[in-house]
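Hey, can you fold this one?
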Amino acid sequence: MGNFIKWLGAGLGFTLGGPIGSILGFALGSVIGGFSKADIERAKAYGETSRTKQSGDFEISLLLLSSVVIKADGKIDQRELLYVRNHFKNMYGEERANNAFKLFKSFIKSNEVSTRQVCGQIRQNLTHASRLQLIHFLFGIAKADGAVNEAEVNSIKIIAGYFYINQHDFESIKAMFYDSSDSAYKILEIEKSATNDELKKAYRKMVKKYHPDKLQHLGEEHVKGAEEKFKQVQKAYEQIQNERGL
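Sure. Predicted structure:
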């Protein structure tokens, strides 16, 4: 219990209040046995001494929204659960991943998640770059079973809307998970008719938007996750250059 309390508290800031705090309290009290109001207060007190508050906020937000997307198509695919489990293991290590997955499974079973309220709280407290990274991860979950279905896309699109992420940014991230003739152009947010100068300008813009350094405040584990998105931008640019003989 003590280690879980420390994990829960470590880095948590805004997520221990508002609608997310209510969901946490319900999940811990109803699904993970042995938790009390005093335990929540201990976790909160521990979190107030941590320097990694934003990282913990991102982590809880990721778990909550992952549960929403996984349930979007009316079934829970073990490959999607494994994707979340492995992602946390790669980012945080075995022990922290085990603690995170305990909480994640409680979110999966809960019907207490209000997507609009949760996203509103996240939007007010996490940067635009952090919210883009959340959307990228959610598409990764949806793709874990081999294909992104319409229900999952719609669920992620709703989340993106609540995040105030515009349609161009949404389509750019979405295109990173589809293999089509125009995916590279969508990733760079340009049309096939764009000139070479417009291509270069779009690439520079996307490099700035998706640069991993924008997530330095979340810690090295999240910077590594952002590198995947950044590499997709570079790959798209190189693909179009090769097609045009540049």
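Residues 46-52 have pLDDT under 50 and may be disordered. Let me know if you want another pass with a different chain boundary.
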